[in-house]
Amino acid sequence: MRFAHLSPLLLLAVAPMVACQAQAPDLFSFVDRIPQCGLSCILEQVPLSACGSLTNSTCICTDVDLHRATEKCVTERCTNALEGIEVARVEAEACQRPVRSRKSDLLVPLIIEVPAWFSVWLRLYSRYSIVHRFEADDWIMLVCVIMNTPFLILGQHIGISCFGVDIWTVDADDLTQCLKLFYIDESFYVICLSLAKLSILCFFLRIFPNRVFRIITYSVMIFIGMSTTVFVFLQIFQCSPIEYNWLGWKGTFGSFRCLNVNTLVYTAAGFSIAQDVIILVLPLPLLFGLNMSWRSKMGIVVMFSLGIFILITSCIRLQYIVHFARSTNPTWDYTDTLIWTGLEVSVSLLVTSLPAIRMLVNRVVPDVLGTLTSKYGFSFGSKKQASGDSTDLRSGKYSDATYRNSVSGLSSRPAVPESRFKLFRVGGKGQMNESELELGDKLKGDVQTEIGATPSSWRDAAADQDRHSSMESGIHVHTTTTVDSESGYVPQGRRPSQM
């Protein structure tokens, strides 16, 4: 990052300083602190302004036109940025301007950034605990969260040390160090944002097997990968020599060559927003075509549409980078840019991790409710029961002890939801795959298997005739399936069978 004509900064207003001197004679000591280039501008511009005299302190401190004229003069004559900053510092003291600080604003994003960082680790835990393996999108997010760690640490250090205040209140050595860290952090920003997008696309590839959709997705991934490589390269070598990015602000660096940083920043932001839109729209045809209830369908669409928050943060950040590389007071003007840059990356991590976290929640919540049910006798939700036999094997009708085995889930499940669009088809024939796991299994329940022995005299008036003759003796297996169904599908229970 570099600042064009940082020296000018400053400051317009040294003029005000002279004004204050008229009010308090002891303030004439400020004259000795004003660099010669700034003092000559003040002495020239004040008589030409509406203030007319160096003794009109109120006018000198508040006249906007005078400040602009003085700033332009300081920009042209003070080639050393340190001189311009000193002019600004003296002006602020002479006019008794309050010290501005937005340090507290820089801490607010931590409310999102910290949970977002933990959400990735929770996502990885969810994936490994449920499917016992990592896929490509999980590995990408692992790399992303590792790179996001120094990005967050450097960003917070830069903000606390240098940003959120006026540049003339920051020590020159501290400012140089912060600009160097800012330059390093820019690469982490571009890479983290792109990795999050690639992870989302790999997630799409994992749950949507349609050939046409996969070709489009791979094309978008190549587009993102190539554009990211180009922008990282341009960011690293935006100025030659590279040291100019953090040393050039002083105005005494020597010969250098730089790209148009504003054009680079705007182009990168535009590409990022375009990629967000593509990723947001890409899965919608498949999601709207899923063969399931509208309630379930809209729930899934909403989950996938959370990416719109990434788009929103990107657009908000865009309006704050208009002064990038142009500001004469960057440590103050870039505060919002710093805030929204961190939020953009964190929201990307959070949104990318939500589907996997949803899987974990869907698994944990029923377990918690089941524990409460067994402990306190509560009942949660309505249930449908499908069974081949209504006989209670625990009612004592069996003469021998009964063995009961309960497992969570269903012994048989319906086919994975399919898209009504022939172009995009989700899943295969009746198999439990990544699509059903990620989009959500709409059936919940318990399978209870009871095994027992029964005497030959056991009869059930409600049973079928063919079962009546085959179950007079021996060991019998009775399975009852209890399900909660969102789509109205109720699997058939098993008839008692003889072993």
From TrEMBL:
Cellular component terms per the entry's GO annotation: extracellular region; side of membrane
Stored SMART domains: CFEM
Subcellular location: Membrane; Secreted
Membrane-spanning intervals of the chain: 106-126, 138-168, 188-208, 215-237, 264-288, 300-322, 337-357
Residue ranges of domain CFEM in the record: 30-96
Chief localization: membrane
Region ranges (Disordered): 456-499
Basic and acidic residues compositional bias, start-end: 461-470
Keyword match Nucleotidyltransferase: no
Keyword hit for Manganese: no
Topology of the protein relative to the lipid bilayer: Lipid-anchor; GPI-anchor; Multi-pass membrane protein
Keywords: Disulfide bond, Glycoprotein, GPI-anchor, Lipoprotein, Membrane, Secreted, Signal, Transmembrane, Transmembrane helix
Alphabetical list of InterPro entries matching this protein: Extracellular_membr_CFEM_dom (IPR008427), Rhodopsin_dom_fungi (IPR049326), SAT4-like (IPR052337)
Signal sequence, start to end: 1-22
Annotated family: Belongs to the SAT4 family. Belongs to the RBT5 family.
Protein name (database record): CFEM domain-containing protein
